[in-house]
Each structure stands twice: as structure tokens, then as C-alpha cells.
User: What shape does this take?
Amino acid sequence: MNKATYIIAAMILGFTMSAQAQSSKARTKFRPQYAAGEMQAANEMDSVQTMSQRQEVLATQTIPNPMVTLEPTIGYVSSTFTGIEGINGSSVDSVSRMQGGAGVLIGRGMWQFESGLLYSQRGGKLNINANDVVKAGIDITLTYIDLPVMARFSWPHSSRSHFFARGGAVVGFLTEANTEVTAPVNYMGATASNTASQDLKDSFNSTDVRLALGMGYDWKFARKMGLVVQADFQESLNKVNKEEILPGKDMFNMGLILSAGLSVKM
Assistant: This one.
């Protein structure tokens, strides 16, 4: 092999090594910043054996899992009263109310503590037989500021999209109690409805402690934000009325709440 052949071979080898170096440099330069976490997780997953251990490694390395999560929500409440059905032939109908506010989750992993502040309405419609012919309807709206004290269990992991269940108590502080009474009026052979409103806050207890059970789903569409939908059942543990309202009878709030909102990692 002559000298020219050696020179040409050396030049080809040099160009090849230079191209490989430039390619490696380009890949490093344009690699997304978040890839480091995934690469570290992949290396650590080689050293664990079970699927649960691998999920934990992947979750902690690649997804933010802060201590506090904020959940602003708005919801629909189907509410009624229990404990007073059948009094003098009366019945109680459910009514539509609303709820809105923000919840706060504290903790990491599958178990978290849940609290917050919610503007919450409860109530029901009483249909009362005044006599064999005349019937009156009393639509009651009770407005509370609710303070949840609950525990939440999430699976498979709270930092990823997941189902969750929760349970505990909700303490409601009464801010308003309004009634709207509708009664038929017979005037010159014609029947019409007469409606009157009244503030009865002093006739209801200032606090309402409710048992709360619910479940939902948190769908993550960004690294620190998700969409949360949930359904809850709540029922009073103490009566909500004083003796001025239906003496000798105990009224309890009961309601089903459907709500949706955002899940924001702080």
C-alpha cells in the first residue's frame, strides 16, 4: 500500500470520527430538559424487581409530587330533608342547589388530608296539607360555609391520573335561611297562587355537621395541572332545625353533590 493510500484512509477515518462526535453533541444539545428524570428513572428501574417498585420510581422521578394541591371546583347539589316525612300527610321533595369553592390536599403518596372552604346551599320543599282541599308548599334554602375534614385515598398513585375515594366530616356554618311559601288562594271562584318569602335564620341551628363519602377521578393533562370530577353523598349527623320549626321533629340535611374543577400542584 503506497503513501497516498494511507493518507486517504486516515482522512476518511478522521471525517467519520468527527461526524460521530458532532452527532452526539447535537443529540445532547437538543435533548429536552425533562429527559434527565426519565433516564435516571430507567436506570433505577433496572435495579428493582416488582411492578409496584417500578411505578414508584417512575412517579417520583418524572412527575412533580408536591406537598400541597389546590382544587377550585363548582358543583350541582340535589338536596332534601329527612326525618319529617308524613307529618299531617306532608311530603318532602328534593330541590336543586349549588356549591362552589376551593379544596386543599396536603400530603404525598396514596393517602392525603383534605380540607378547604366551600359556599354550599342545602334545602328541600315541604308539601303540607292545610286541609282536605288546600295544600301549601314551603321551599327552604339553607346557605352554609362548609369546612371539610376528610381523608383521601388515591390509586395507583396520587401524582398521576387516578381514581380516588374519600370520607370524613363536613362542618357547615349557617349564613342564611330563607323560605318561600306558596299557597293557593280562592278569589271569586278562581284559584291563584300566593307567594311570600321569609328569613328564618334564627329558627335553624348555626352549625350542621355532616357525614361525607365520595369518589372521583383526577385526569392530569399537564405536569402540574389536571381536571377533577367527583360525586359526594352527605347527610347531617345533628338536626338542623330548632323547636320553632316543626316542634318535636328533627330535620336533617341530605344531599348528592356532583362537581368538577381543576387540580393544581402548588
